[in-house]
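For concreteness, we quote verbatim a single protein encoded this way:
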Amino acid sequence: MRAVIQRVSNASVAVDGQCVGSIDIGFLILLGVTHEDTEQDANWLASKVTQLRIFSDDEGKMNLDLSQVGGRILVISQFTLFAETKKGNRPSFIKAAGAEKANDLYTYFSDLLEQLLNQPVERGIFGADMKVSLVNDGPVTLIIDTKNKE
């Protein structure tokens, strides 16, 4: 799994002009799933995300986690995170998991976040043409890949 995590002061997602998810302070997570991903990858990633200390404390240092700032999460499925652009100018998405597997792991990951945070997680609509709006706070953006745990 690959996640792009953006610290936001607000974010929302719309489908067909209708807002289907929105948050104020928190994380916008763009989530990609590949063929090799499993529930173990989702477990590791959810645990990592919920414990990230990337919110500023009173001294302006990144020391606070999501729960300490009353933050929320908006998760958007994004198969394009596994695009291959090495050859030619048209990206290949062969590394992205098929729709059924990707949706299952996207749902599992989002449900797991809800359990770990004990609060609802906002979501996009899997497979839909979504319009995502955000105000990246900082800006702070992290990329985490479960196959490259750095």
About this structure: The CA atoms of residues 47 and 116 lie 8 Å apart. The longest strand covers residues 130-145.
